[in-house]
Amino acid sequence: MRHELELAPTFRELFDQTHKQKGSDDYVSESARMITETYDRTMVDLYVEGTSQPDLDLEAWVDAAGGPRKG
Question: Could you tell me the pTM of the whole model?
Fold first, then answer.
């Protein structure tokens, strides 16, 4: 993938590459679709429009994926 883009892919690009059906914009599972939608909503809530966002907010991703919670 790095060769195709001439730069290192983002985490999201890698996730989409491995979790979408080839030649389609459809995710291979409902779980993968829900994780990305939840993560996107979380990022909108956390970062004000116009401010820079990290390539990956690991805590937001773990929460979206249903991983362990702090505390």
Answer: 0.75
Residue with tokens 């985490």: 11
Number of domains in the chain: 1
Q: Can you read off the two tokens belonging to residue 26? A: 């459809």
Residue 45 Cα distances to 37, 38, 39, 49, angstroms = 12, 11, 10, 9
Residue 32 contacts residue 61 (beta carbons within 8 Å): no
Question: Rounded distance, CA 37 to CA 18, Å?
Answer: 16
**CB–CB of 8/14 below 8 Å?**
no
Expressed as residue numbers, the domain containing 52 is: 30-66
Is residue 60 within 8 A of residue 38, CB to CB? The reply is no
Q: What is the CA radius of gyration of the chain?
A: 13
Please report the pLDDT score of residue 5 as a whole number.
Answer: 54
Which amino acid is present at 8? A
